[in-house]
Amino acid sequence: MPITDSDITGNTSNYGGGVYISGNDGMSGNQIEANAANDDGGGVYVNIGTGEFHDNTFDSNTSVKDGAGMFMNQGAPHVHDNDFLFNSADDDGGGLRGKLTSAYVDDNYFEGNDCNTEGGGAKFSHKALSSLSGNQFVDNTAGWHGGGLDMEECATTLKNSLFQGNHAESGGGVHIQKGWAAVYVTDVTFDDNHAGWQGGGMSISQKDDTTAQYAITYITRVKLLNGRATNGAAIQVDSGDVRLRNVLMELNQAWTTGGALYFENATGTMTNSVLYANKEPTSGSGMRIGTGRAFTVDDTIFYQNVGGPTVLYESGIVPTFKYTDLNGNSAGYSGMADPTGTNGNITTSPSFVNASGGDFHLASTSALHDKGDPALYDVDGSRSDFGIYGGPYGSWP
Fold it and tell me: Would you say residue 110 has pLDDT above 80?
């Protein structure tokens, strides 16, 4: 029987300090507050569940291990329209923890949750499928990885979500690690997330330790704004295959290197993207590539980035640039031959409508209309424009 419209407050247990559910039951309209677990699931523990959990408030619950607000073990529950507020886990998943679960997690609000290790707002792991959509992660903190969200050894679809003001050592907004299959991040906004070490917005380490394969991370129509980190203020990748499609990286700042991007042992592509007004002191205001693997940049604009060279290449396979525009930056390419004048690479003012005001549409007078890679097409069937509104993924919601 579902639990509805109840106050569940001040209880303690080993698993599920407030409530332990096994099976198909769900919960709705409950206030689940100040409960404690000596193991997992400070507020609620769901074991092999398929129930619906909605319109609940999980507030100030604690756990010695994982999932201070709620812990889901296996099953496929539907968790939607809940508030996870100020829950605290000694290990992983301050607000919500999913392990071996194919949960659907939609339209929830995570604020002020924390954990000592991974996933201040939430953590998911050890399952080939889960879906997160329409969630907001605000001001959550992890001591290690994934201030907002940590995804480990799973294949998760993350879409239509907001990450704002989250903090961690690695992956202030999101940390993705050891993927078993492809991860899709689509139509997500990151704003003002901070990492003490690397990846202010996102940190990605997608090498599977067992198979030594690199799972693909697809990042599509994503905005990464105002990130801060020592390395890679927008995105940091230390292994993996990353496909950036129509990504905006704006006003990010690294204290050491990689104002927007920091790639180490990474392969992949970046197409129809914009890197604008990112900063770092001396090395890679736009992107820094070390121990490079095959990486291609196409139909992308680097504009008014400040600090050292806009693109810093250090070692490994030299990245390929084609139909890329560098304009108005402090410096150009370093560590590699300047590709300007070949393969469609240019240094032309992009003529955005209002870059400083956040409008990155190309003005009608821009020279970058229909001048992108001839192998790529806009959604209207014409030759690709440069920038985030060009190419096959250029139709933003």
Answer: yes
